[in-house]
Amino acid sequence: MRYIQYLCMLWGRRLRRSGPVLGTLAAMNEQTVFPEDLPDRARVVHAEQAGGAEVLVEAQVSLPEPGPNQVLVETAATGVNFIETYQRSGVYPVQYPFTPGTEGTGRVLAAGEGVESLSVGQRVTTLEASTGTYASHFLVDAGKAVRVPDEVTDEQAAALPLQGITAHYLVNSTYRVSPGETVLTHAGAGGVGQILTQLLKAKGARVITTCSTEEKAQIAQAAGADYVLGYENFAERVLEITKGEGVAAVFDGVGKDTYAGSLESLAIRGMFVLYGGASGQVPPLDPQELNRRGGLYVTRPATHWYLRNAEERSWRYAELFRALTTGDLKLSIGASYPLAEAGRAHEDLENRRTTGKLLLQP
What we know:
Layout: H1 2-16, H2 20-32, E1 41-47, E2 56-62, E3 70-80, H3 83-89, E4 104-111, E5 123-126, E6 137-141, E7 146-147, H4 154-159, H5 161-174, E8 182-185, H6 191-202, E9 206-210, H7 214-223, E10 227-229, H8 234-241, E11 247-252, H9 259-264, E12 266-274, H10 287-292, E13 297-299, H11 310-326, E14 333-338, H12 342-350, E15 357-361
Parallel strand pairs: 8-9, 8-11, 9-10, 11-12, 12-13, 14-15
Antiparallel strand pairs: 1-2, 3-4, 3-6, 3-15, 4-5, 5-7
């Protein structure tokens, strides 16, 4: 079958020279062709049931085939994110067997019918893959993948999407930070935390952040934080730094262990932005508590609400790639693991043994 498709590709190239109508048909043929040397199987790491990191095992599966408006990508690097530990453990319900991952970078191997924005051989990255990216190959809708600039490495492209887009929407859309404002972030040495600090400083904000160790504090300072605090009694220190006023906004990805102090740290009409729960989920919150503390605002954003259309997606990626290529944004890649050792990456992430972004490489 693939040999016949390969002949169709050659035939299509000849048709392209024959005129605009036949050329269009040829282009459609090329879009649906599989390269002659395309493998029959793909490697994945999946979980057959909910559980600890040990349930992640390597397996061989059929190579996914792109449907209409999809591309097949050969993975160069995959980003590891905390949400995948929730899915693996059963905190977030998923169907098993489950292959984690929506973030990945690689080269387009084949394209489905109707794909016009991407071509075979181009490098792309995404945080919205259609199939799990803990794999040697994955599928993604062409409209949800973006081309990677030549100046950006595969590792950078894999490390950027989720953490970069998250930081971008937090400071540009969820709470639009103004020059001179003081804000609090948590986990300032983490992947999101370091990018968040850099974007905040670029906007002229004063940044207070928290870390769990002296080593992580040095990383947060290197990212540009003005004040780095430990987690113990951090709210008291924030109020001291702000002379009792509190901060305009708190960006909190830690959750259960920090939310009470985050609320205490806010100024009147300040905003509590809860974008994650690395320490666990926040318990129900009484709205009257927000009134008592000064008419506070609370929001729980998620990435998909900030990638609503092609224009928004293009704007966010373009700004991040520009900052990366000019050197205004620096990414921290904490560790890279072989695909088969995804379980070890989960253990390190859950036990807070990491800083920066974790990657898997097939």
